[in-house]
Amino acid sequence: MREVVLERPGDFAEWRGVARGLLASNIAPEDVSWRGASEGASLFGDDVPSLEGEAVTLPRELLAMADRVICHRGAEVPARLYRLVWRAARERQLLARTTDADVDWLRKTDKAIRRDIHKMHAFVRFRRLGEEAGRESFAAWFEPDHRILRLTAPFFRRRFYGMDWAIVTPDARAIWEDEELNYGPGGTRDEVPDSDVVEDQWRTYYGAIFNPARVKIDAMRAEMPKKYWHNLPEAQDIALLLAGAGARVERMREAAVSAANPRTEKWRTRMPDELALDDDGKTLAGLAKAVGRCTRCPLYCNATQAVVGEGPAAARIMVVGEQPGDQEDLQGRPFVGPAGQVLDAALDEAGLDRRRLFLTNAVKHFKFEPRGKRRLHQNPTSAEIDICRWWLDKERALVQPELIVTLGASALRGVTGRSASIKSMRGQVHELAGGAKLIATIHPSFLVRLPDRDRAAEERGAFVADLARARKLAA
Amino acid sequence: MSGKTILQKLAVLADAAKYDASCASSGTVKRDSTASKGIGSTEGMGICHSYAPDGRCISLLKILLTNFCVYDCRFCINRASSNVERARFSPQEVVTLTLDFYKRNYIEGLFLSSGIIRSEDYTMEQLVEVARILREEHRFQGYIHLKTIAGADPALVALAGLYADRLSTNVELPTEAGLESFAPEKKPATIRKTMASVRVGAEDAMEAAKGRLIGKAKPPRFAPAGQSTQMIVGADAARDDDILATADNLYSGYHLRRVYYSAYSPIPDASSALPPVRPPLMREHRLYQADWLLRFYGFARSEIMEGASGGMLDLSIDPKLAWALMKRDIFPVDINRAPRELLLRVPGLGTRAVDRIVAVRRTGKLRLGDLAKLTASVRKVLPFIVTPDWRPGKLTDSADLRARFAPPAEQLTLAL
């Protein structure tokens, strides 16, 4: 049996040095007895074997955990950690076996340390010492469960770089001064001021943010155990707040409804009323406003906004699509999503200038089915298309295009009022009541969805040809 | 303006802010004050610096800039017609309070909201000004959550996104009808438009980051902790199904990080339209559980509602268990062979337990005793699983399975 004495409890470098030596000398965990310096073992213990043999490689995750777990106050910790590194050097994937007793212990102990660290990050309360040359200094007293100061001080340095601070614990202290972090011996509570001018404000805030109608003491105590309370200024008020909570809620319940605040009307200087029906469809701008208020079908409930047509009022060609998609719905403009990009490219190729066309949709609101983080496009029903024709007709009346190009079956129904297959309509020029001509073609989203490359190229060619025919017709 | 002290204003404006449930400070980018030599850091994981006796985390200084408001939303303590005491902070006062609290390690940062004064744009400008002073004049690196005022100019929202970690716009009531009758000035479409401008802002910033030249400075992140919203539960007649449908739409349309559900709780000087009820805390809890099933467990809303009745979730058992009891033909599942998606459907197994099961079963067969090390709720899991040394037999289909888990009826009334 070899006896090892650790001089500095919680010091990872010391433990690691010893463990490396033992490991390199192939000394089994059951042949080592670990002692703290204060435990009155033989004064110096046995010599730690010097590093010899090949360096042992260990999983990085294990070392990271050992670095934390060594801070645990349990007397068995150095020995158990050594057994783990001993086993890890021999059993691959040891850490993945979370049901192993040693691994389970490691994970649980590490969790306890991480919780202790987290609570220290949360519950340290600085008190102001003073200010010198514009740099403020603060100090805090804290009592962590384990020897975690060295694991928490870097957090406070990252966070409070621009001020000087000291954290004093029973085991050790950390001091950040002149942009340098140093550690020193443990101290006592009376080294730190017993109050701070801002604490009144903090306690006022704590009391005011508490909702007396939903008292849940167990939830509070699970996350902020009582052992921390004596170092938290706000915790001094908990008993008082709880004692008054019931009465506060009762008062709210019993209070009769009072008359409206007399100053209400003065504050409510009417904001410009968007609802004013100033112009119901006599101009494109007026039409856009009116569509924005449309509740003729339920699609308005979930869409962001109605997307109206875009383009010059004197456009000779009107292009009608189905309905706005995800991007169109967000941006409030037609044909700005993936299908819009396909359309833009095709227009280009057909020699049409998008800026001279009037682009719109048969249905003005986006119809979709939520699926996680995406909205899946849903085809509008015939009824929805027919209800929305009210707006399409108004757009047609204002723009009076010579030619209408319908993209897809929904657009065709929106314009003609009846369902027909695109196949049966395509390739011909139709006359619409009122004199405008009609060309029916596919919707560009059809091209986006085609998996077969050759087929896609072919269909795209036909689409461009349809657009080119439109250009000639309206020339 | 009255001559209130900071302490008096704080009491009024924190009291007015407490009905906003969110106090999260997580999910943002990692930053610290080493380079700026100022103060502040965010570490990805949020920190709750204190807990109030209502069990809620206090992570941020959550206050209103002012509780004067021209809107008259019935459910709100700050509605124009309420006789509640009024106060207003100057932007500088909020900045000083935030820094004073922050330097003492009381908070992770600021959550600033406001009543609507003068106009939506003016109010939004004031909020943005506070964030600007903190970031630019004080090099503050801590967390900032700003309320976006629905209907404010998208340019102001874009500016807010450059200073803030998170933006939020509350829908408050899940249905059009509810909002119309309880909040006449709030327009659901305006709220959705504002949320859309936040999503567009974030996507534009991401595009800009992709297109930058190598070696050029990174463009600023846009609200890296995303956007969130809140719905009040129990103030109007909306059912859980309505609430979850709205949540589903908002998650998919505006990529919200979180939807908060806030049990309506009595407010001082309440409107006569609202019955002064005990806050429905259990209902709120079930909605959060259902929300988690939507986001992390692969459930569709329609599936969750299979375990509900009349559009309301079962209050006495959790929604996953309620669903599993309706779908017993799927169970029991073999812990050692079931795919991840199926394990996620087992009542009592959370995402973390499932991850651990999937990892550890690669190293050997899992037995019942091993399961106890991976999850705390073995009793709940038992009727739904098979291991080499456990078969539930008739238990899975037994008629009294629900009774095993549902608390005795009288406990239900003890919501507090």
Specify which chain pair forms the largest interface: A-B, 92 and 97 residues
Number of strand segments of chain A: 14
Main sheet: strands, sense, barrel of chain A: 5 strands, mixed
Give the strand order, joined by hyphens, for the main sheet of chain B: 3-4-5-6-7-8
Overall spatial form of chain B: globular
User: How many angstroms does the end-to-end distance of chain B come to?
Assistant: 40 Å
Give the overall shape of chain A. Answer: elongated
Q: Major sheet of chain A: order of its strands?
A: 3-4-5-6-7
Kindly estimate the percentage of residues of chain A that lie in beta strands according to DSSP. Answer: 5-15%
Rg of chain B, rounded, reads 24 Å
Strand content of chain B: 5-15%
Describe what you observe in this structure:
The complex is a heterodimer of chains A (475) and B (416). By secondary structure, chain A is an alpha/beta fold. Chain A is built from 17 helices and 14 strands. Chain A has helices at 12-24, 60-69, 77-88, 101-123, 149-159, 199-209, 217-223, 238-254, 264-267, 284-292, 326-331, 338-350, 382-399, 408-416, 422-425, 444-449, 453-473; strands spanning 2-6, 32-36, 127-132, 135-141, 164-168, 172-177, 180-185, 317-321, 358-361, 368-371, 374-377, 403-407, 430-431, 437-441. In chain A, a hairpin with a 2-residue loop joins strand 3 (127-132) and strand 4 (135-141). In chain A, helix 12 (338-350) crosses helix 17 and helix 13 packs across helix 14 (408-416). Residues 272-276 of chain A have low confidence and may be disordered. Chain B is of the alpha/beta class. In chain B, helix 2 (91-103) packs across helix 3 (120-137) and helix 3 packs parallel to helix 4 (154-163). Chain B contains 15 helices and ten strands. Residues 411-416 of chain B have low confidence and may be disordered. Chains A and B meet through helix 4, strand 4, helix 5, helix 6 and helix 7 of A and helix 1, strand 1, strand 2, strand 3 and helix 2 of B.
